[in-house]
Amino acid sequence: MLLRAFSLAFVLAISATLTACGGGSSAASSAESTVQKSADSAVTQGLAGLALEHLTADGTTSAVAGLRQVGDAAKVQAGDAFMIGSTTKAMTSALAGRLVERGAIAWTTTLAEALPELAAGMLPVYRTVTLEQLLAHRGGVMAFNNAADVERFQASLESYTDELPSALAGRERFFAAWLLAQSAPARPGQDFLYSNAGYALAALMLQTRTGRPFAELFEQELARPLGLQVSWTSADTRFTNRPVGHDGAKGKLAALAAEDADTSAWLDVLRPGGCGTTLTPGSYASWVRWHLRALRGETTPLASSYLQRIKVLKAGDYALGWIAADIDGRAVLAHDGEWRGFTSLLVVDEQGRSASFGMTNTEADDGAWALAVLNQAVLDVERALPPK
């Protein structure tokens, strides 16, 4: 089982990254040429392909550049779908917020309360960890953002003598039971430790309280009300007629091969954290626009308790799939994500005046250069087209 880490580089260094990068297009340029120029520049700097968008209250400016697959002539199209990785975390949190407002669960519901059948087997330190703490990466559980955690889980699978579950629901509970029996690498309920596994636990809490699978909850309680078209791409998918994920050093990108079916089935357990979330730039723009409206004080389908928690974030704070930062002194909310050769980055003005995001079918072998190029493209747009 091979797991490529979701990105954490931007989460850890966002304030410095956003304020330290220089450059930017001329403010006198039209929005269309500015966004297209930034997209073209990012591809010139090594990204395989890119979709870049800038949103304001007046409309959306979009651009695409580059190739669906290096070595092939097919260019990225405006309607192409990309995997967005960990920017999914805000969606999972927004889903939780809607279920909280429905009374199905509370932000303060604990793991022991939501998962009583697992309570006896979980370490005592995890029993009082709440839904909100998991979504703020303060659950204390293993990160599953590195090879060591994956290898530890893989070793347990290889030594397991009983029959392993084959259905996703069984694998989700098997993984949760195993995870909650492992020693805590951080103090549960206190320390910040970015954890994709924590989001899997949070989603399992939602599923148990509602009796519905995560994908069904996501579609019915979030995607439909917000008008989003989201699908889930398993790691064993072989891509045709769409962007293919790439990995490698700058100038030496290679398309990622599909995983084997069994590995892919275990990776699906991490969908709530961003494993395989797939949508077009146009659909993602709808998700972003709901946040712009909500941050301007308009009524939206987004849960008020979810919005209240992200509105009060100060620079460097993290909650519910967002980190607060600033661009040249202007407060923003942001997140990035990487998954199987794809990288995404979103920046939203805290006053709801504008937002920019990029999606690329490129992931760096060192976890850095592709995100840095994407960050610069987004920053160039933000600086050239400041909110009014």
What does this structure look like?
With 388 residues, this protein is of the alpha+beta class. The protein has 2 domains: 9-88 and 227-384, DD-peptidase/beta-lactamase superfamily (Beta-lactamase); 91-220, Beta-lactamase. Helices cover 39% and strands 16% of the residues. The strands form 3 sheets. A 7-stranded antiparallel beta sheet has the order 2-1-12-11-10-9-8, sandwiched between helices. It is globular. It starts with 8 loop residues before the first helix and ends with a helix. The relative contact order is 0.22. Mean pLDDT is 91; it is low at 1-28.
Topology:
Blueprint (H helix, E strand, L loop, with lengths): L8 H12 L10 H14 L4 E8 L2 E8 L15 E2 L4 H15 L8 H4 L1 H4 L11 H5 L11 H13 L8 H12 L16 H15 L3 H13 L4 E2 L13 E3 L5 E2 L5 H7 L9 E3 L1 H15 L8 H8 L6 E2 L2 E6 L2 E10 L2 E8 L4 E7 L1 E3 L4 H16 L4
Parallel strand pairs: 5-13
Antiparallel strand pairs: 1-2, 1-12, 3-7, 4-7, 5-6, 8-9, 9-10, 10-11, 11-12
Helix pairs in contact: 1-14, 2-14, 3-9, 3-10, 3-13, 8-9
Attribute tags:
three-stranded antiparallel beta sheet, Beta-lactamase, alpha+beta, seven-stranded antiparallel beta sheet, 388 residues
